[in-house]
Automatic annotation (TrEMBL):
Matches recorded under InterPro entries: Ald_DH/histidinol_DH (IPR016161), Ald_DH_C (IPR016163), Ald_DH_N (IPR016162), Aldehyde_DH_dom (IPR015590)
Residues annotated as domain Aldehyde dehydrogenase: 53-498
Domain of life: Bacteria
Keyword field: Oxidoreductase
SUPFAM superfamilies: ALDH-like (SSF53720)
Protein name (record): Dehydrogenase
PANTHER family in alphabetical order: ALDEHYDE DEHYDROGENASE-RELATED
UniProt KW Transport keyword: no
Biological source species: Parafrankia colletiae
Pfam families in the record: Aldedh
């Protein structure tokens, strides 16, 4: 036997300079006003406050302790809202040219610390390195576009009567939450955000510190959504509520808004589906499905459901199984040699060990009630450090025909779990794709475009792709949802600016889903 062939490969280890301690020390050096040695701080009224009880948080990457959000009480949240209103009253009179200059300065500061923001995201929410940097880049590039285009969007419009309150999920702290806040401030509003409880606290703290240094009226608080709801949702000072999250929490927020008359946009989940009918371009579809596993499908526009014509199922399977078995997952910062680049993974952990346990239970339920396990990956296929905690990692799974009694039949799993449904008619295809009463995106794989366009008109999704996926989109592209997946004004481009400003027409009808009407832009 060749001696070289018998030499075991080097053991994986953490790339030097990428530990949580390294990342936190760098954050403290960049923004000492926002990071104490032992905890994060909250921001309102232009000052950082050492208040609230820090949540005991663990990194999903390896289960090790990281800085948790400092959870304030409702009285402090009301104090923060009042301070944000004071910021708002001053900021709305700042000329647009000055607002553009200050937002530009904040973007440039975040660009300077791009890699640190991304490294914090890796530890806090488990994003692989490439995707973490992409999250930061999309936020900054998107805001630069608004800075260039905002003059025409805001012409004849004024800021809201009060600041914008932001409550968002943990999965895109920069490209969704920070991006939205910077545009809200560019449009003439102060902005306050609640730190997502499950992750992103340190990244958002650093970004908000850089924004505040640039003179922007931003506030950041942490706490339980249910305890702070009276302040962050119903407070009379609030001019608009922006929410991104699941249907359960979104429904509670919507109920709290019923009698307030506040401007709002509530992005909620839906079961985004990809239908496959009279189709033959399997190599094209394989590329889309492979990319679809990025970040473990922990995003609002992921496709966890495939609805397949029975006559095509054998060809679908021949394409699908090599794709799902090639997915790369594991520790986002593990390398063989110190000088190696960080691994280019499809995904790391899911957000918490509890979420991994929940997903495993949903898979077991679907199989127990009659679904067929089409594919089940193994943690042994992942890329891990020796003896590291792997409790938040979930290998890819595919379930064929999950029964109606199982959660995977009708609800988005928010993890690397696919469900595949076999149908025999166009009517069955549409019914299966519309299983969740509204979705953000959907796609049809179909060789005949006229058939695809006809079917797409029957889908309850805001955006429908033909032989390609749809996403949230960037810059001028509108974004929203149909059915229960969205409430309030739509966003994206001028729609986002109009959602957080007031026009001269007191009877203005914004694009969106409202109790009295729904109005959709071209998508």
């Amino acid at each position: 036997m060749d001696a070289a062939a018998s030499t075991p490969p080097p053991r994986l280890h953490l790339k030097p300079g990428t530990s949580w301690a390294d990342a936190y020390a760098r954050a403290r050096q960049v923004a000492p006003e926002a990071f104490d040695e032992d905890r994060l701080l909250n921001l309102w009224g232009g000052r950082w406050h050492r208040t609230g009880n820090p949540l005991h948080s663990l990194s999903p990457v390896d289960g090790s302790p990281i800085a948790g959000p400092p959870m304030i009480d409702p009285d402090e949240a009301r104090e923060a809202i009042r301070a944000t209103l004071d910021d708002h009253k001053e900021w709305r009179d700042v000329p647009l040219a000055d607002r553009k200059a200050r937002v530009t300065a904040a973007v440039e500061a975040m660009e300077e610390h791009r890699e640190l923001l991304a490294l914090l995201l890796v530890w806090e929410i488990g994003k692989p390195w490439r995707l973490a940097r992409t999250d930061v880049d999309r936020a900054l590039d998107g805001v630069r576009w608004y800075i260039d285009e905002v003059d025409s969007m805001i012409a004849g419009r004024t800021s809201l009567p009060g600041p914008v309150s932001n409550i968002a999920s943990w999965n895109y702290p920069m490209s969704v939450l920070m991006h939205a806040m910077l545009v809200q401030m560019l449009a003439g509003n102060a902005a306050i955000a609640k730190t997502p409880t499950d992750g992103g606290a340190a990244c958002l703290t650093l970004a908000c510190a850089l924004a505040r240094r640039a003179g922007l009226p931003v506030s950041l608080v942490s706490g339980s959504g249910s305890r702070l709801s009276s302040a962050l949702v119903r407070a009379p000072e609030i001019g608009c509520l922006a929410f991104v999250g699941g249907r359960s929490a979104g429904g509670q927020v919507a109920a709290a808004l019923v009698d307030t008359g506040k401007r709002h946009f509530l992005e909620q989940e839906g079961l985004n589906a990809w239908g496959i009918w009279d189709f033959s371009q399997w190599d094209l579809l394989a590329g889309h499905l492979r990319k679809g596993f990025e970040y473990g499908k922990q995003r609002c526009t992921a496709y966890p459901r495939y609805v397949v014509q029975r006559q095509l199922f054998d060809q679908f399977l021949q394409m699908y199984l090599p794709v799902v078995s090639s997915v790369r997952f594991g520790h986002p910062l593990a390398v063989e040699h110190d000088a190696d680049p960080l691994p280019d993974l499809d995904y790391g952990p899911v957000i918490t060990a509890e979420k991994a346990t929940e997903l495993a239970a949903k898979v077991d339920e679907a199989i127990t009630k009659g679904g067929l396990p089409l594919y089940r990956g193994d943690l042994a296929d992942g890329r891990f450090l020796p003896d590291q905690d792997r409790s938040a990692y979930v290998p890819p799974v595919a379930i064929l025909n999950p029964p109606p009694a199982a959660a995977l039949h009708h609800a988005e799993p928010f993890g690397p779990i696919d469900s595949i449904v076999i149908v025999d008619s166009e009517a069955e295809l549409l019914a299966a794709m519309n299983a969740s009463n509204g979705a953000l995106v959907a796609s049809l794989a179909c060789d005949d475009e006229s058939t695809a366009r006809r079917l797409s008109g029957e889908l309850a999704a805001f955006k429908v792709g033909v032989n390609k996926p749809r996403s949230r989109g960037d810059r001028a592209e509108p974004f929203g949802g149909r059915g229960a997946s969205w409430k309030g004004a739509f966003v994206g481009g001028e729609h986002l600016v109009h959602a957080v400003t007031v026009g001269s027409d007191s009877h203005e009808r914004l694009y969106g889903n409202f109790p009295s009407y729904s109005l959709y832009p071209e998508t």
